[in-house]
Amino acid sequence: MTLLGGALVPMLQGALIDTFGVAISYAVPGVCFLAAVAYGLFDLRSTAGLLVSRSAAQEVPELT
């Protein structure tokens, strides 16, 4: 991911700047940020299920 972000994405954005202009080229980092957010949400949902199942499996002592 770092290789793509540091080497290929700037070249793609530069090509879009030359072809379409600066404003349109910012779609490239926008797509990259959306991919990072999607991965974060996916990971959050998968680890949240693990946390719930682990806590449900353990017995919690009652405070009296």
Would you list the SSEs in sequence order as H and E?
HHH
Mean pLDDT: 80
> What's the alpha carbon Rg, rounded to whole Å?
21 Å
Percent helix range: over 70%
Work out the helix count.
3
Tally the structural domains: 1
Largest sheet: none
Instruction: Please indicate the percent range of residues in DSSP E strands (runs of 2 or more).
Output: under 5%
Unreliable spans are: none
- How many distinct beta strands? 0
What is the 3D shape? elongated
First and last CA, distance: 52 Å
Helix/strand structural class: mainly alpha
Provide a descriptive summary of the structure in words.
- With 64 residues, the chain is an all-alpha fold.
- The chain has one domain (2-57).
- It is built from three helices and no strands.
- It has helices spanning 2-19, 22-25, 27-57.
- α1 packs antiparallel against α3.
- The relative contact order is 0.08.
